[in-house]
Amino acid sequence: MIGIGNLRCGLHIPVYPPSPSLVFFFMPPRPSLLSSWLPKLSKLARAQEWWEYKLAPILATAYATALITAAPLSNLVPGLLFLLASLIVGATYVSLLNDFTDRAEDQAAGKPNRLASASPGLVRGLFGLCLGSGLLFGWYARRLSLLAALLYLGAWVAYTLYSLPPFRWKTRGALGLLADAAGAHLFPQLFTVTLISAWLGRPVPLPWLLLVGVWSLACGGRNIIWHQLHDEENDVRTQTPTFVVRWGALRARHLAERILFPVEVAAFGGLLWLGQAPLAWLALLVYGGLVWFRLRQWGIVPVVAAPRAKYQLWLNEYYEGLYPLAMLLTAAWPLRAVDAGLLIVHGLLFSQRLRQTALTLWAGALTLGARLRRVWRLR
């Protein structure tokens, strides 16, 4: 997903023209097939929309599951690679399916659609690649755990039901909320717990599995309500009967704010308590400070689900940045070479959210320092 740029290098020989071999050596290399296709595939898969939002919290669950089983994190590196690859294939399938089935609606709403101009052969090839890869990942997961394989299959089925006619649960109210929350959050999170448990050969406590399920389902429901509230105007224009369009924005907000969010917070608190990771609690306090600073300094209001002019969704930044980092550090401590390498790789893979958090922390530190200096001068 990272394009390889051309290396620009020139040579000037004032008297003699360069030999053909020198000209060839210093010519900018032609882009390889891989380097030219990866950015296109990343754009078609809408990776920028789900890479950190979906994958980082799932990896946090993987780290936390390793922690509660008291297994060395170094034993999990191949399993983490398998987990990440299997989820990337599934998320790519979801993005392609969404764009493919939303073409008419996006055109009516004036929204860009990445598959609108794609050739039928390319579309068939991409779907075939995703489905074939998904079958291979599912087959290998079955060798580790039947439950893990069924949960992995469940994510694919849920999102197919959500998008693909004649099912198209997206247009069937509460069924759409359930399918999206299950496909994007519940099944992937439970798949992660069961896969890590099977990979390490260590059982996980049943309360841990149940709390992960409740938390992920409530969190997924809240986030799809936010998404539908954000797209309400377009959905009304295209006569797409989503849950928000059918039941109204007010009822959807009440569901998110009065039911789903309290359940999500309670279940997540249970996960932190079972995980026994003080660093995760400390990171939560730091996150609270970031929310307060953005509100006071820039007027960015934390919201549960309802979009507004300047807002941030409660807890999403924590789930994507500080929480995975805290669980990784806790599970890997004391750091060895493999653990340190895993920490570096995680930071590189999910650098955007961590960079945003670090910049806000730096801005907060500068603001606090300036205020302390003013107070000192007044004394």
Automatic annotation (TrEMBL):
It is found in: Membrane. One of its GO terms (cellular component) is membrane. Gene3D superfamilies: UbiA prenyltransferase. It is a multi-pass membrane protein. InterPro entries: UbiA_prenyltransferase (IPR000537), UbiA_sf (IPR044878). Keywords: Cell membrane, Membrane, Transmembrane, Transmembrane helix. This is UbiA family prenyltransferase.
